[in-house]
Amino acid sequence: MTALALAVAELKRVTRDRTFMFFIVLLPILVILLVGVTTSSSSNIRIGLVPGQSTPLATQLGNDLQADPAFTTVRYSTRAKGVDALRRGELQAVVVIPTTLDADLQSGRTTQIPVLVSGAIENNQAAVTGISSVVARHGATVQAALFATTHTSRAFAENLVTARTLQREAPVVAVRTEVVNSKGVVLPVGYSYSAPTMLVLFVFLNAVAGGAAIIQTRKYGVFARALAAPIRPRDLVLGEGLCYFALALIQSVLIVVVGAVMFDVSWGDPAAAVALVGMWALVGTGAGILSGTLFRTPEQAGAIGPAVGIAFAMLGGCMWPLEIVPQSVRLAGHAFPHAWAVDAWTNLLSRGGGLAEIGGYLGILAAYAVGLLAIASLRLRRSLVTP
Amino acid sequence: MSAVLAIAIKDLRQRLRDRSAIVLGFVAPLAVAWLISMAFGSAASFHTNVAVVDLDRGQVAAGFTTFVKSPELAKLLTVTSAVNAEDAKAKVAKGDLGAAFVIPAGYSDAVTSGNNRPITVLTSVDASIAGQVARSLAQSFTAQIEAVQLSVNAAVSAGAPAASVGQLAAEAAALRLPEQTITQPAGTKTLTAINYYAPAMGIFFSFFAIGFGARGFFLERNGGTLDRLAAAPIGPGTILMGKSLATFVYGAASLSTVALFTSLIFGAYWGPPLAVIALIVALALTIVGMTALVITAARTERQSEGFASMLTFGLVLLGGNFIFVGGAPEMVRTLALFTPNGWALRALTDFSGGADWTAVTTPLIAILAFGLGTGVIAFALRRRVVNQ
Q: Is residue B217 in some structural domain?
């Protein structure tokens, strides 16, 4: 009961701080929004298009590129503007439709469509392959229209319409796509990626940075005065632990609710999600109290805490999926609890896992939580009883 | 002048005695740059593993296998084996393959007789770009075949006699597609992760100088040091200059160290040295302006810490220090240009992409304007500090 009263008092003190509320509430939501909106657009190849003249064939080719689901296409009025975007990494390639495209094609001349890329040509084959495919299919209709015009009395424009209709409605050598799985091994892109990973990042980061509160409390002599009352050191330790746990839970619940309501994130099996949130809050609690006993000044905890939190999050796969990094980095990343938490969220969100499927991850996270809490509690208790 | 220097040196000494200032200004950005360098190395291009399951064994199918194994596609694809369609599906689902092609039995015969028997591209929900690339490859290959058949069908639709289909097909087969792509270097360089995130992290951590500077001011004011300084035969301008100089030196030293070490150790390219120095100086001046703004806006040490943190994280979030702003939608890219760090990253990204020193001009003006703006607001609010 004493511990609970201490926890409530500490919680009230901490939540009165507006800065703290910025880090607990506003910052995570902004990061989820930005990372979500950025990763949403990363599933396509980004290309630029300098459309040339507004002639029928050039317009058609531009529209074909724009309509292809493989691309996110941005139009530029000049080649220089397209190259600027390419230089800044906003695009993977720029298609420059020649101004003489229609005249060349209709007169039977073979036309080359320049595709501009950054760096070595062979490093940009993904974008080039996609563009070549669209250009080739456009070329097939032009060839067919020219061929029909040569062999009949009908005009080229009319034959082009026929060729495009035939290509669209009666594909002769189709390519069909079959998605072999509905459950992925990585988190889906967009908010379903940013919300769980930022939950992992911010709960831990804020707990570590929040270690400053313990140092401040000790510095103000609050612990010493409390111990003068009939309060046992273990009640103080428990009180601090409950406060940190409550804060971690509040932040997690906030992210889950905001993720679900604002960003339409489906958090998977409810029981498993609750267990995972609870377990991660325990890990955060241990890390937070440990930070309060490791750093000497509140400034150190407040300043170094975020740096540590960001570094662990990078290693643990919160900033990018560990599947895209070398195996050695992936293995090293799993030395940190973040990686196991992200793995568990991936299982819930991408593979529809439940409590049974994430049981192993929960066990590993429990080991981290127990280890961190044990060391942190011992250190805090020792700091309380040592004059 | 000596008083300005004395105050600045004292402030710097005090700051460097605090381990957190060393960690944030120098250790953390280098550590993060190291992590990014380890994670991404120099990889800059997309590559995936694919397999071809040839159930046809005909000439056209063999042509397709030769096509995907061509040397031009070697940097894009590694073609591995799959026993059958089920094996390929399992490998794609497991992530061993980015995609797989299944050419159905009878494909070659169907193509030559004008029948539709599609190539199947197997893809995974985890590898959307690999799936798109594989589909594009298959379509590129089939486009030539499609062109022949479309030509015949279009000619017949336009009135060519149906009896002449054989003749038409022979003529169409001799044609080549009238449009081809030609890949050309744009004269730009590929932006690598280390070239983007080394400066991004350097700038992020240098912004913590705002908090250090503002907090230091309030600590001194509460401790009575400022009153004692004011009693000395030096004007308030000297005190202000000394403190600003300390913040400027700390910010500039932090950024310069990160620039130097990430260039030498991790091979990051920041840009032409003089242009980079100009950017660092401009950013450090802006840090001074923002510190002054926080000092005038806050009333207590705690408040100054809060304002500084919110300003730092707000700016780095909008400016693109956490996310690669080039990959973000247009709106996010525009928002980045409302921040000095966003402009600095714009210049450094341009340099990394191969632009010359002139790319620094507009960003430099924008950063200095931001610094001046914050300085002017701080000057306008200076009475708040005096009255407290």
A: yes
Instruction: List C-alpha distances in Å: A375 to A1, A173, A215, A276, A334.
Output: 24, 66, 17, 22, 21
Of residues A315 and A1, the one with the higher pLDDT is A315
CA distance B349 to chain A (A): 6
Q: Does B187 touch chain A (CB under 8 A)?
A: yes
Residue B1, in any domain of the structure: no
Higher pLDDT, B2 or B77: B77
Residue from the list B39, B122, B205 with its beta carbon closest to the beta carbon of A180 = B122
Name the pTM for this structure. 0.84
pLDDT-derived band at A140, boundaries 50, 70, 90: very high
Cβ pair B181:A41 closer than 8 A = no
Question: Is residue B380 over pLDDT 70?
Answer: yes
Do residues A184 and A351 lie in contact, with contact meaning Cβ atoms separated by under 8 Å? yes
Q: Which residue has the higher pLDDT, A113 or A237?
A: A113
CB-based contact (8 Å) between A24 and chain B? no
A181 touches chain B (CB under 8 A): yes
158-177 in A: which are within 8 Å (CB) of B? 158-159, 162-163, 166-167, 170-177
Q: How far apart are CA B294 and CA B312, in angstroms?
A: 11
Residues 221-280 of B with CB under 8 A from A: none
| Contact yes or no for A184 and B124 at CB 8 A | yes
CB contacts under 8 A, A 264-293 vs B, are none
The interface predicted TM-score of the complex, written ipTM, equals 0.82
CB A268, CB A353: distance < 8 Å = yes
**Phi, psi torsion values for A2, nearest 5 degrees:** -60, -45
Beta strands in chain B (DSSP E): 48-54, 77-80, 99-103, 119-123, 179-185
CATH 3.40.1710.10 fits A44-169, yes or no: yes
Domain of B327, in residue numbers: 17-42+192-387
Encode pLDDT of B100-150 as tens digits. 999 999 888 887 776 778 899 999 887 878 888 898 889 888 888 888 889
Give A297: exposed, middle or buried? Use CB within 10 Å, 0-12, 13-18, 19+.
middle
Indicate if the pLDDT at residue B386 is higher than 60: no
Tell me, yes or no, whether B52 and B163 share the same domain: yes
| Tens digit of each residue's pLDDT (9 = 90 or more) over A7-29 | 787 778 777 777 777 888 888 88
* CATH code of B63's domain: 3.40.1710
Report if residue B340 sits inside a domain: yes
What's phi and psi for B45, nearest 5 deg?
Answer: -125, 155
Distance CA(B79)–CA(A322), nearest Å, equals 24
Query: Measured between CA atoms, how close is A77 to chain B, in angstroms?
Result: 16
Please tell me the least confidently modeled range out of A89-93, A113-117, A179-183, B200-204.
A179-183
- For a pLDDT cut of 70, what percent of chain A falls above it? 97
| Statement to judge: residues B38 and B55 lie in one domain | no
Position B117 scores a pLDDT of 83
Q: Where are the domains of chain A?
A: 2-39+191-385, 44-169
Residues A12 and A120: their CA atoms lie apart, in Å, by: 59
CB contact under 8 A, B154 and A148: yes
State how far the Cα of B197 lies from the Cα of B122, in Å rounded to an integer: 35
A328 pLDDT band, cuts 50/70/90, is confident
Chain B contacts of A166, Cβ < 8 Å?
Answer: 150, 153-154, 157
Interface check B147 vs A, CB under 8 A: yes
